[in-house]
Amino acid sequence: MAQSSLFSRRKFWAHRFGIAPVLPMSRAEMEQLGWESCDIILVTGDGYVDHPSFGMALIGRLLESQGFRVGILSQPEWNSASPYQALGPPNLFFGVTAGNMDSMVNRYTSDRRLRREDAYTPGGTGGERPDRSTLVYCQRCREAYPEVPVIIGGIEASLRRLAHYDYWSDTVRRSILVDSRADLLLYGNAERAIVELAHRVAAGEHPRSIRDLRGTVSLLSEAEQSQWLNQPESGWQLLDYSELEKEGEHAPPLNVADRQHQVVCLPAFEQVKEDQRRYAHASRLFHLETNPGNARPLLQPHGNQFIWVMPPPLPLSTDEIDRVYELPYSRQPHPSYGGAKIAAFEMIRFSVNIMRGCFGGCTFCSITEHEGRIIQSRSEASILREIEAIEKQPDFSGNISDLGGPTANMYRMRCRSRKIESACRRLSCVYPEICPQMDTSHQPLTQLYRSARKVAGVKRIFVASGLRYDLAVRDPEYIEELVTHHVGGYLKIAPEHTEAEPLSKMMKPGIDTFYRFRELFDRFSRKVGKEQYLIPYFIAAHPGTRDEDMVQLALWLKRNRFRPDQVQNFLPTPMSLATAMYHSAHNPLRKVKSDSMVILIPKGGYQRRVHKAFLRYHDPNNWPLLRQTLTKLGMTSLIGSGKDQLVPADSQRFRGQSKKRLREGRKRR
Q1: How far, in Å, CA of 470 to CA of 114, rounded?
Q2: Global model pTM greater than 0.90
């Protein structure tokens, strides 16, 4: 898996213009920099914040470090092409993204209600980006300059790179590359791909002709597919897994020899759209081909065209990721926004990202599909330099709000054997048990905490990222360090559920692991004389969850005196395994066969409301619905005011209270 360094290429000639204070968003800014044109223009659905936590800033500064002149079109109007002509035509290509979130997730709740606010927009105003932003932006770029190539990327494009179930339209949609008519799609953390692509396009290659670049998706015509892949002299071996296994039959093994010349043919778009079993089957095949050490190219027919997916990009080395995060970001929103607040920036402005990736494999989460399972960690020295830079900011109060990443405590964790890591096809390194090959030592992270606290001007460092408590319980010293110095009274963790069946569909550990972590958390809190609390998060209406499972979860919450304030139903995001379950009612964690049994899926507005109501069992507005459900389940013994009962009986007193709160809730809405 050897690859040249991210920064080893000769810089493009335009590097002589130097470093921009911020990447320009107007012709006037370009003129101040002495630019006649941009080499690359990045179009984003987010407000432009020149900070490495914002994807377009990171990609823009990385391309700048390669010598390219990069402009930004942030949240352009989409009713005409003229805003896309503001900087003139780019010399190389447009790079289009919906932003740090899928635009449909950004704009709609799990109940498909339009959100009023947008955390990535100056002032928080909603409606500053269109639905399916990537598609709309691409169309306008084409209208503005038909001859300029268009490249798509970011999380929306990444998670929609194949035929995928779309929750908001309740249908299977084509690959976003087909619908956007873009020339190339870059998925995952695309630093390697975008750097090589930019240099190759600058050297005269057209993006449509680039088919050998890791981390990219391209579109082949029927003639191209036949000429390039079906000829014996091509060297490719096509493995057709479009059909389901039948009882008594076995598909050819996936781990056959000479993998580097094999292509896995997925069921066609038309097949997965019409056949839910095939959709689950395709999802399983895709997830088995996500390890950069052994993944093979994927081919998925879409009518008379073919989606060609190259294997994932190779992870960045520590030196490379250090340099990416230490590029000359201003670490501020673009000056044109004036004093307008951007909530997403306010949340992370005094935080430090120490790693990326997650090997947890939770089926409802898209981090693994986007960032991969191999942890990429920054060096301690680089992290401390960033803390020192934050400390110099005039409005810094002395508190680092977070020292983490996708997962707070996977820093420096990795498989003990690079050979085993390259050959592994597990969907999770921690489920059903933590892999014995995984180095779960928290010592580097504990040492990082201790070093960070010594930085001059730093008063407190908090850990706000999600914590894998099943890993933490293996290292009580880490928990003691965390509890003693880095918890601000409350620590958020995510058991997600208490019952075995839904947990098995989530690939999450049993609740006993939570108890072990809580015991250590409480013990070390008492030891240092602090009153601190755990805030557990749970998911309602996840695939595989019965009404009875939600009853047991609600009883557990009451026994443990948890009263969740904000709760959310499961949101089926594109590409995730749980979304495949939701749509297909089949389990892609196992082989999907023609006779596979269906699993229970809480669907429909009523059942989803019921499951959500159980998480807020204490809210009088939910009592009528819960009483109705408990009666239907034959659990009327749980209706009453006893300590082992869930909701009060339907007395006049409680009915009046419920109606009063319901009226108040309607007025607030």
Answers
A1: 36
A2: yes
